[in-house]
Every structure is written in structure tokens, then in C-alpha cells.
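Hi there,

I know you've been waiting on this one. I reran it after we fixed the sequence typo, so this is the corrected version. Both the input and the resulting structure follow.
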Amino acid sequence: MTTEDNKDTSRLEEGLLALPDALDQMGYTDLRPGQREALESIFDGNDTFVVLATGAGKSALYALPTIALKLKTIVFSPLVSLMQDQVRSMNLKGIKAGALNSSQTDAQNVTALKMWCDGTLQMMFVAPERIENDQFKNAMRTIKPDMVVLDEAHCMSNWTATFRPSYKLCGEMVKTLNPWITLALTATATKDIISDVASILKMNNPKVCKHYVKRDNLKLSSSRIDAGSLKPSVLDMCRKIDGSVIVYCASVNNVMSTYEYLHNAGESVTYYHGQIQQPSMKEVNMRSFMSGESRICVATNAFGMGIDKSDIRGVIHADPPGSVEAVSQEVGRAGRDGKDSVCHMFYTDDGWHIQESLFARSNPSAHTMSVVYSTLNKLADSNRQVALSVDNIGVEAGIDGGEATGAFNYLMMLDVIRRDNPTDKTLKVTVNNTDFSGLNATRKAIMECIMTEAVPDGETSLGNKMYRGVDPVYMAERLNKGEATIKSNITQLKKDGYIDVITPPRCKITTILKDLPPEALAAADKRRSLEMTKLASVLKYIDTPDKDKADFIQDYFDKA
């Protein structure tokens, strides 16, 4: 946040004079199109919002001022998997950099904070989730950054499908730190998104620098084919491309089936998607492609932001993406070394249906949100809590599970509801028969324990019955039996009619925190309309003649 009190335009001349040496230190021969305007704005002390295409050199916009003006710079980024590469790159170029994120050990994060506080680090890459960490807050109070950078800033806006709630925390942090410069960077931003992010960051009349780089080395094309021809066509195109290729698919299932098809055909291929459970496997697969060990990577859009591989010769969309912004970002990963590269998009009805489904899931209508919220209120107990899965709540509301999930995500984003793992592990038990004479010794002991002392949380009234809270772990210890033995005997006692049992919920508990604001419904429909327009623009791109596709993208961004 730049205010009149801390604005210092005298550094413009200082920055421009030091720029040639900074370029030399970074290994750059000259500035790329769009960079000079942004750098002059930064040197002049303006909060700056930069929209620059993928591969156009956004990282230079915080590295060069850091060198030229000897700034202390914090870079907030959601790209945790790439932070170590970013740190390594800056250190190699003479900028002492560190990182704070969940992929590092506590000791590594503590060391990075100490190095920031003792002045060793000039730049630090920070995952936005760290903002709430007290040690981080203390470090920022010890040495305040001169420049705060928000990379992939569009993730901060709830107008985007890539919205990340944790990224909104950056707004309050920037307000608290009051840096000399706040710099927001993205390859994707409409006027609504720019306005939204600037408001969240409390940016003071930011200078907006938008520049779409039309790259003649990217050979853009598309074709409509039937679903049965898709995988053979992808294989054929991969074989015609001499070099590394990214194949983008719209779903994890499509990623895996395409990967297996290419692998079985003898291609050097790996895969990447957000549902890979082991972080080490994600790292191995990414490294395999980045190093050239695997020539092809089949991936969802989880593989993308910050990918720095200059010699990608082809980007193939096996399924259409959901916006022209995504098209621009993803084809922009090809040919960063300036050499000719193939960027082809296949259209199939199946692939398009996936995008329509993702759209419905990510952009719930006002009607869907109202129905889901009303259903939650109808099902909630006296504590305004509902112990049902999202799918089951969707059934109760008469809404598709995917749309219900989208509504839940939006309601959580608005802090209208909260989802928590269940904390109550007790069984709710009511006794129907107090004649234990027909029971064996174990079941008799269990019944007596239920009746006398296995009541850790008192009694609960449900309907016309009183239920006791029974903890199987406590009972197992009390009777010197295994927990499995206790549970199996309780099950049999229920079958025999001695007791009724309500088991604790296994799904997350939904808590209603507040009423649904009417203005949120209007905002939901506005967002849905915006995203629908974006989706329709992809069809226009597909049907635009290949020779005019680059002009189509440029015109799209000029009007955005």
C-alpha cells in the first residue's frame, strides 16, 4: 500500500540509472515488451498491477527493482512446489533468497526467518498460509519489507475459479506492513478481477500495466473430432513434435487414461495432477519432465503456474480448457526460447461436457445456493449443525452432487458455513431391556457399564428417547477387553433388542455461522455470468481460423 506519506518518487532516477547493471546481473540483454512501463511505475513509487502473458518475464519485475534499489522483498506465491527452484534461481543471480512453506521442515522455516531478521536475506518467497504464523508476523515487525509482491494475484479474487481463500489473508498483511511498493502480478485478469484484488490489497490508485505479447513462434491450431479418435490423434501429434510436449486434459481420469495409452504405445511419458497423494511422487514426475527424462507430460491444469522450461516444443489440449485466459497461459508455456512450437486444441463432445460440469461445480447459481442454504437450515440441530455428507445434503435439496459441492465451497468462502471433522467419538445408546439374565458375562458387564458409568458426556434427548454417551475406548479399559470386542458385542446387543445405538458421524460436520447475505446471491450470479462468457469464448477460439487465432487472443485481452 503506497500512501502520500511514504511515496518517494526520487528513486525513479536512481532505479533507471542502476537498471543496466541489474539487467547484467540477472543475465538479461534487454527488457521484454511490457516490462519497461511496469518497472518505471515501480521505480516511481507506485503500487502496480501487472498483467503480462505467461513467459513474458513477470519475475524480472520484482528481481530487477530488488537489485537496482537494494530492496527487501517478500513474494507471496501459491506455487509451493516451485519455490525451491525460484530460490535457487535468485541465489545463482546474486540475490540472497529463502522460502517459507509447508514443504520445508520447521527447522528450515525457522532458519529462513532468522536470516531475514539478521539481514542476510534480501528476498523471501512465502506461501500465503504462513501469514497467520506468529513467528512470521514477528519477523515482519522486526524487518519490514520495502516491496510486497503478490504472484498469481488472480488467485486472490473470488471472481475466478482458481480462487484460494488463504490468499485473501495477504490483504490484511499488506495493510499492516504498509510497504513502499505493493506489486500484483498475473497473466490473467479482467477489469473486475483487477478491481477486486486491488481492493483486497488496499492498493492506492495502482498503476495498471497490461500487455499481451503476441508470439509468432507459437503455431496455434484446433480441430473438432469424435471421442474415439482422440487418443490416436494425440499420439500421432506427439510423435510429429520434435521435443518436449505437455498434453492437457480436463479431468484426472482423462489424464490417467491418456498417460496409459501413450505409455503402452512406447512413448516417454509421465503424468501430473492435483490428486497424486504422495508429494514425493508429484516431485518425481515433475522433475522427470523438467529434466527431459520424460519427453511428454500428461496433466491437468494443476501442472502449469510457474513452469520454467524454455524448450517445450508442443502444448496439446486433449480437452478444451475453461477460458481463453487458460488457453493463453497454457500455450504460453511452449517455445519460451523463441523457437517454433505447436499448440493444438482438440474438441470432442465428451471433453466439452467435462468443462460444462466443472463450470456448474465452480459457479453455483443464486438459486442453487439458496436451496442448499435452506436445506441446511431445515436439517440443522439446535446448535445449527448438520452431520451429513455434501452428497446426502444435495440429495435432500434435490441438487446434483457436483453443484452442491460448488454451493458449499462458495458458502464457506463467504464464511456463512464451516466444515469440521467430527470430534465426538462416542456412541449414543438407549437401553430397551434391563433384564440381563439371558446374557453372557461379557454382554452383561457391558450393559451394567452402560447403565452406571460409561456416560462421558451425559444424556441426550433425541425424539422421545434419552441416549447415553458411551465411549468404547473407556469401556474397553474399564472391562479389560479389546475395543473390537466391545464394539462387536454392542452390535449384537442392538440386534437382540437390548439397546438402540446411534453411531458418531463419519462425515464432516457443517456448522451454519450466519445468515446468507442477499448481496452474495447477486454476486454469485454475476460471477456465474462472467465465467459463462469465458467458457463461450473458448468455443469462439476453437472455431476461429488458425491463422487468426493469435489475433483473437490479443483482441480478447485488449477488451477484457
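Quick highlight: Residues 476 and 485 are 8 Å apart (CA to CA).

Best,
R. S.
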